[in-house]
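As a representative case, we now present a protein record of this kind.
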Amino acid sequence: MSYLQRNSSHECFPYNTYNNTLGIHQVVHPHQSSSHMSFDIPISLLGSNHSIQSSGGTSHGVEMFVPMNIPQYNRDGSSTVMFQANTERNSLSIPLEECLQPGGGPHLKDPHEVMFPTVDRAQVHIFKLVIAWPGYDTVEYPIDIGTNEVPITRADLARQIAYHFFGFFIQCNNGHFTQKSSFQWKVGGRDGYSFHQIHLSTFWNIEGTSWSASVRVLKNA
């Protein structure tokens, strides 16, 4: 199993296993360096009007926050990680599909910044990503924050979040996760949101080791 170099990422998250499980395949073109790889993503998750943006900037359109079913009184704003594109002034998010790439994609701002510098990873090295998409049951995924010697960077945090949302979209698209309400937020299918429409904005602490990601959907994408 191959991993990213130590100076750009920690080495614990099993990307190759996730690639095989989720059907994500690296497509390396002769003119591309290792930091500019593109990915072959199942077409059902991209929708009928998809456009892979791994080699370009963010799309122009109207972004709207997804109202996760997490009580806002739990959010004190003291622990929040922001994700911005380095190609846009006043950027508020970055496409999740770009974050699937090693290094979090070529357009992530401050990709090598160490995350959670005050956390003693000898005591805790796994956070929980809570996805409470409207109308669906709440699910949790592990976020490996590395070790004290090799802590997680912004790029690798973005990549892990992207992998878990990608897996969530697969489960919804396959009917393993079924929607019970809030049908305007349907995921998958011909009339639901597709993975390429989702932009990552922030990663914020709910309480303890439980965290949530604020994501936006790009309308008319």
Remarks:
- The chain is about 15% helix and 20% strand.
- Confidence is low (pLDDT under 50) at residues 1-10, 25-39, 47-59.
- The longest helix spans residues 154-173.
